[in-house]
Amino acid sequence: MGRRLGTQRGVTLVELVVTVSILALLASVVLPLSWMTGQRVRELELRRNLRIIRTAIDDYKKAYDKAVEERKIIAAAAKSGYPKDLETLVTGDDFGGAYRVRQRFLRRIPPDPMNPPRGNDPPAWGLRSYSDSPDAGTWGREDVFDVYSLSNGVSIDGTRYRDW
């Protein structure tokens, strides 16, 4: 019952090298694609979060304008009708007693996926007030008219996240 050398089963060194080479080639193709997919997902999340915040800001302005139109409040010359900060969208506003309950426009401030908060810090967004120029890099602090990402990164299509 002796074994013959030719009947032993196993993998030769050449087969092993070819298999490892093929796996390395596949990995070199898959890794950049997975990075690109992750980047694309973060960019979609950034666009969605910007849309959510901007829609909440617009809804706040519509509620303010409706209160003025219905003569529940008097429009102040110095007030644009936009929220004073992003936190106002979460805590709500009754527009000086115009409504019985505080109207809330966001449950929470969504984070910037390109500039995520660290630890327990609140989400950080770049803010522009109604009186700021469209490309202002600093916030005038009168109100919140628009938000933008604080990331200095560049998107897959070559545009800066700050310009979205």
UniProtKB/TrEMBL annotation:
The keyword RNA-binding does not apply. NCBIfam families: IV_pilin_GFxxxE. Keywords: Membrane, Methylation, Transmembrane, Transmembrane helix. It comes from Trichlorobacter ammonificans. This is General secretion pathway protein G. Pfam families: N_methyl. The chain crosses the membrane at residues 12-35. InterPro entries: Bac_GSPG_pilin (IPR000983), N_methyl_site (IPR012902), Pilin-like (IPR045584).
